[in-house]
Specification:
By secondary structure, the protein is mainly α. It contains three helices and two strands; from the N terminus they run αββαα. It has a two-stranded antiparallel sheet.
Length: 122
C-alpha cells in the first residue's frame, strides 16, 4: 500500500469516527432536550431556540457511550458550566493519580498526645 493510499485510508477512518460521534450526539442530545427543561443544571441560566446551541448534554459518569433511554446519565449544562465540570473532573483525577503514584500518606498526627496533655491539666 502506497503512502497516499494509507493516508486516504486513515482520513476515511477519522471521517467515519467523527460522523459516528456526531450522529450519536444528535441522538442523545435531541432526547435530552425533549426530556429536560432548557435550563442549565448548575447556574440556572434559561435557554431559548436562539441560544440553544450553548446548552450541552453532560454525562454524569463521564462515559459518552452510556446513554440510557431514561436520561439518568444526562444533565443539561451551559457551555461554561460544562467546561467547569470537566476541568474539575480532570483536576480531581490528576490529584488522585499523583497520590497513587507517590504512595503518599499522611504520617503527621497533630493531635497525638493531646488527650494526655489535657488529662494532666485537670
Amino acid at each position: 500500500m502506497s503512502p497516499h493510499e494509507t493516508k486516504n485510508k486513515l482520513d476515511l477512518i477519522v471521517e467515519n469516527a467523527r460522523r459516528d460521534r456526531e450522529e450519536r450526539e444528535k441522538g442523545y442530545r435531541a432526547q435530552a432536550l425533549k426530556m429536560y427543561p432548557w435550563i442549565c443544571g448548575r447556574c440556572g441560566r434559561e435557554f431559548t431556540r436562539e441560544n440553544l446551541r450553548e446548552l450541552t448534554v453532560h454525562h454524569r459518569d463521564h462515559n459518552h457511550d452510556n446513554n440510557p433511554p431514561d436520561g439518568s446519565n444526562w444533565e443539561l449544562l451551559c457551555l461554561y458550566c460544562h467546561d467547569n465540570e470537566h476541568s474539575r473532573y480532570i483536576d480531581e483525577d490528576n490529584a488522585v493519580n499523583v497520590v497513587d503514584k507517590n504512595h503518599n500518606t499522611t504520617t503527621h498526627q497533630p493531635f497525638a498526645g493531646l488527650g494526655d496533655l489535657l488529662k494532666g491539666k485537670k
